[in-house]
Design goal:
The chain is of the alpha+beta class. The chain has 10 helices and 20 strands. Helix 8 packs antiparallel against helix 9. It is globular and about 65 Å long.
Length: about 375
C-alpha cells in the first residue's frame, strides 16, 4: 500500500519526471501537467555528479543515460593566456559511490528525452500546454484547476515547476529567487579530442571560463561574468560578446570560438539563490527541485539536488501508508539541511570570486560538500 493513489505533478523538468517515474512504477496514477506546449528541448549541456547518476539507476534509466552522455573523472584547472597550461589536475569524490563515474556531461535535450520516455513507459499521463491557475484542497484531497477549468482531484500535488514556480505562489510561499551578482554565457559546441573532463580557467576578463564534455562529439562551454542586463542583446550580438570575452583564453577555447563564429548560439542567464524554509508543503501540496531551492552551478549540484528531492519523496510515498505529519517531518529532515548546505556553499564560492578573495579555501569547501553528497540522501 502507498501513502497516495493519485498524484498530479506540475512541471516536466528532471525533478518532476523522476518523481513521476518512481510513483508510476509503484502503481500510483500520475498525471503530469506542463505549461509549455511540448517537452523542453532547449539549453546546452548539463554536468551531473555521481549522486545524480545514483538516482538515475534507481529510476531504471542509468543504462540509457550512460550511453547518451560522456562520463569522466576529475577536473583540470588551466591558466588564462598563451597555451592555456594545465596548472592542476584534481580528483573528484565519487558522490554516487564506487559503481558510478565521478561525473557525466550530456546534452540537456537528451536527458529530457530519456526521462520522458521512461515516464511514458511507466504510465505517467502527460498534459502539455496546461497551465495551473488555481489549487484548492481539503484534508483529504487537492483539486487542480488548469487554464481556469477543473482538471481533477488528487491525493497529492507536487510542484516541480522551476525557479519561478506557480505552485509555490499559489500555496502562499513567498520565498523567491534572488540574483547573486553573476551572469553566465553558455554555448553548445563540438568537442576537441583533448577535452576529456571538465576544465576551468580562473582569472582573465571574466570570473570563470570553462567547458564540460557532453558526448563523443559535443561539449558545452560557459563564461561567468558580473551580472548585466543583457535583455536587449540579439542572437548575433550574444555570439559576438561571447567570442570577445573568451579571447583571453587559449587552448580548446580556440575551437569554441570557431564554432561560435560558425553559428553556434550563445545564451545568457543570471545566477540565482533561494531556499524555502521548512515546510516545503502546505497540506497536500509540496514543492521540490528548483521550486524549493536554487543556486549557482559552481559545484554542479542543482539538478542532483532536485533528483534527490524526487527520490526521497517517492521513497516515502511508496513505503508509507499515510500522507501524515510523520512522513513530512522525515522528508524535510532528509532534504532541507542537505539542500541548504549545497545552496550556501554554491553561493559562497561565487561570492569569493566577486570579492576577489584569494585566501578563500574553495577547494576545501568543494571537497567538504562532495563528502556530504557521497552519503545517500
Amino acid at each position: 500500500m502507498t501513502a497516495v493513489n493519485t498524484v498530479a505533478i506540475v512541471g516536466s523538468g528532471v525533478a518532476g519526471l523522476a518523481t513521476g517515474i518512481q510513483l508510476a512504477k509503484a502503481g500510483v496514477q500520475v498525471d503530469l501537467f506542463e505549461a509549455k506546449p511540448e517537452l523542453g528541448t532547449g539549453g546546452s549541456g548539463i554536468s551531473l555528479q555521481g549522486n545524480a547518476l545514483r538516482v538515475f539507476d534507481q529510476l531504471g534509466a542509468w543504462d540509457d543515460i550512460r550511453a547518451a552522455g560522456y562520463a569522466f573523472e576529475g577536473l583540470n584547472l588551466r591558466a588564462p593566456g598563451p597555451g592555456a597550461p594545465i596548472v592542476a589536475s584534481l580528483p573528484d569524490v565519487k558522490t554516487g559511490g564506487p559503481d558510478y563515474p565521478s561525473a557525466m556531461g550530456m546534452p540537456r535535450a537528451e536527458l529530457a528525452r530519456i526521462l520522458f520516455e521512461h515516464a511514458q513507459r511507466a504510465g505517467v499521463r502527460f498534459h502539455f500546454g496546461s497551465r495551473v491557475t488555481a489549487i484548492t484542497q481539503t484534508d483529504e484531497a487537492v483539486e487542480l484547476v488548469v487554464d481556469g477549468t477543473p482538471a481533477g482531484t488528487f491525493d497529492l500535488v507536487v510542484g516541480a515547476d522551476g525557479i519561478n514556480s506557480t505552485v509555490r505562489e499559489l500555496i502562499g510561499i513567498t520565498t523567491k529567487p534572488e540574483p547573486t551578482g553573476m551572469g553566465i554565457w553558455r554555448t553548445f559546441v563540438s568537442r576537441p579530442a583533448e577535452v576529456e573532463r571538465s576544465e576551468l580557467y580562473y582569472g582573465g576578463p571574466v570570473y570563470i571560463a570553462g567547458y564540460t564534455p557532453t558526448g563523443a562529439n559535443s561539449m558545452y562551454a560557459f563564461l561567468v561574468e558580473k551580472a548585466q542586463d543583457r535583455t536587449a542583446v540579439d542572437a548575433d550580438e550574444a555570439t559576438r560578446i561571447m567570442v570577445e570575452e573568451s579571447r583571453a583564453y587559449d587552448g580548446p577555447w580556440n575551437s569554441i570560438r570557431a564554432d561560435l563564429e560558425g553559428g553556434a548560439a550563445a545564451n545568457y542567464t543570471w545566477f540565482t539563490k533561494h531556499i524555502v524554509d521548512a515546510p516545503w508543503n502546505r497540506g497536500r501540496v509540496v514543492v521540490i527541485g528548483d521550486a524549493a531551492h536554487s543556486c549557482p552551478p559552481t559545484i554542479a549540484q542543482g539538478a542532483p539536488q532536485g533528483l534527490e528531492d524526487a527520490a526521497v519523496l517517492s521513497e516515502l510515498l511508496v513505503e508509507r501508508d499515510a500522507l501524515d505529519q510523520e512522513l513530512w517531518d522525515t522528508f524535510h529532515a532528509r532534504r532541507i539541511p542537505r539542500a541548504t548546505a549545497v545552496v550556501q556553499a554554491s553561493v559562497q564560492l561565487g561570492q569569493w570570486q566577486i570579492d576577489g578573495d584569494r585566501d578563500a579555501d574553495a577547494g576545501g569547501l568543494i571537497f567538504g560538500i562532495a563528502q556530504q553528497m557521497a552519503v545517500p540522501a
